[in-house]
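Memo subject: From amino acid sequence to discrete backbone structure tokens
Action wanted: Derive the backbone structure tokens from the amino acid sequence.
How to read it: Take the token row as a discrete description of the fold.
Attached in line: The record itself begins immediately under this heading.
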Amino acid sequence: MEKTGAELMLGWFEDVWTQGKASPIPSLLDVSRVIVEGGASAPIGSEEAHRAQRTLKEALTDIRLDVESFTSNGDQVTCAMVVKARDKMSGEPVAFRSTFDGRVRDGQLVSVSNAIDAVL
């Protein structure tokens, strides 16, 4: 049975961020988009998305995702969450808000847009 968009996204968050498993980004994404300074949206490939994720995981420990809202409507999935962690070097707490929009096709995440607000 094919996974729903909600099952796919929540499973991905759990596997990658909570359990620390290797990222399935290359197999999940065909196009990704990130929000850059000023609110513009820039496309990035799966390798860039994987590199950004790896950088976060190398800098942070004790990563926890606190989901504030989650909706799934057809092939669209939207999630707002607060990411809480610790800086590996200083041990100081880190928190930021992330809004994640994804599109699912044939049981796979095929595109995402992720906006991060580093100021809480």
Notes: The chain is about 25% helix and 50% strand.
